[in-house]
Amino acid sequence: MKVIVFHIGAERYGLPLAGVARVVPVAQLLRLTDVPRFFAGLLDLHGELVPVVDLTRLAGLTPEAVRYDTRILIVDCPQPDGGARKLGLKAERVAGVAEAGGIGDDAVRVTDLDTLLPAAARGMLFDYAVAA
């Protein structure tokens, strides 16, 4: 299985490539007040407001400065009504596409959206996006 490899702190993770709609460079985000620290803001993606989660903050770590390989992974997030909405996942370092697995320093921990961000938190992010 092909995954897009990114880092959260020193750990390497892989998100199945089939679940990633787009990878975009970090852009200016619309900031909102009274939101959890891991909510980086809203991305204007061709006129659609997309909530963006900072994966480093979500893990309880302090983010580094934006780097040349910092990206926002756009994924389709399932909704309770059966539809899907776009969600951005800000990853400090995106290493590219690789085969899942690996040994030693090449090991990639394959994850999914449910593991990265619980459904309750995802719903809250979309509530903020609608209110904006």
TrEMBL record:
Q: Which InterPro entries match?
A: CheW, CheW-like_dom_sf, CheW-lke_dom
Q: Which residues form a coiled coil?
A: none
Q: Which organism is it from?
A: Massilia terrae
* Designated name of the protein: Chemotaxis protein CheW
Write down the SMART domains for this protein, in alphabetical order: CheW
Q: Which domain of life is it from?
A: Bacteria
Span-the-membrane segments of this chain are none
One family from Pfam that matches here is CheW
Q: Which residues form the CheW-like domain?
A: 1-132
